[in-house]
């Protein structure tokens, strides 16, 4: 893959496909991590005199404009981070985009409106997607792919557009791919994988691929209750994917045969109802119980303290750790301890630690951890998982020379 250093960008219109899919509360950005992650690439292009056209999606609008998914607040925050004005086009390929891009001078930046406001961005039909890519290509001379969180999508701006322009990878994608290679090629051992999140079915591919690679797989989050059920225990009213129980039992059997240690929780924090994460109101019926004694109707919402200690011990001697998915409902103080304990265990270890994007990255920031204490915090949870599953990512394939 070519890097931006391989491109002559001075005076050229450079289309940067970023991932600025940040969480919003109204017009307020609640986590600007993805904006900060791509800013160095944009700044480097600016310094070299490029005319930078930034584009991204946000949320899941249905192929037409929707004010609640506007990137306008992102343009403001990007300008603050870059320390320079950032223009904003109120459409993707219409009159506003054309005029805004045409007005760019050397070293100036503009952001297009949400790419998914145009149905061609996510179209399954190659011709429809290609037609939108043609319109985007008319706005630029060069293409830089730096939206790692979107490279697993076969979308117009990610997959089709690079074929229409000279292209290179930005610094963010180059870093992400380098990190993922450290997790898949000549890995420093012991190699510990910590998996959380809600559903086993979301992690089937990555568990399958890691069975031959990881030394230990620690299971938390909502998915742990399917593992607990697979061991023959009741899980009360906790999240359970009954259809995945045979799959989990097969994993446990194969793990034992291949020398991969599955570490299943010993205890869990429960409540009779789902907590109010918006207000953080106290949970009146909070309890910690062993996993073989979950009361009928109780909802398991975090790993318990014995499990947190066990997980910390299993991480302590690791040389490589990959973590994807929180251990519980970390957004509520009563159920944040498990996720906090795992994050601290990663920091305390001497391992190369990778936080696999998505909710895990959000948890690190929400719980106040210093991001620099981790080896790498990914900007793409889904993309990271698919890479670790061994899949070909369309957006990366499109950037190959």
UniProtKB/TrEMBL annotation:
Principal subcellular localization: cytoplasm
Binding-site residues, (2R)-3-phosphoglycerate: 34, 116, 153
Catalytic activity as recorded in UniProt: (2R)-3-phosphoglycerate + ATP = (2R)-3-phospho-glyceroyl phosphate + ADP
GO-annotated molecular function: ADP binding; ATP binding; phosphoglycerate kinase activity
EC numbers on record: 2.7.2.3
Swiss-Prot/TrEMBL keywords: ATP-binding, Cytoplasm, Glycolysis, Kinase, Nucleotide-binding, Transferase
Annotated residues for binding of substrate: 19-21, 34, 57-60, 116, 153
Pathway entry: Carbohydrate degradation; glycolysis; pyruvate from D-glyceraldehyde 3-phosphate: step 2/5
Enzyme class: transferase
Protein name: Phosphoglycerate kinase
Organism expressing this protein natively: Kitasatospora griseola
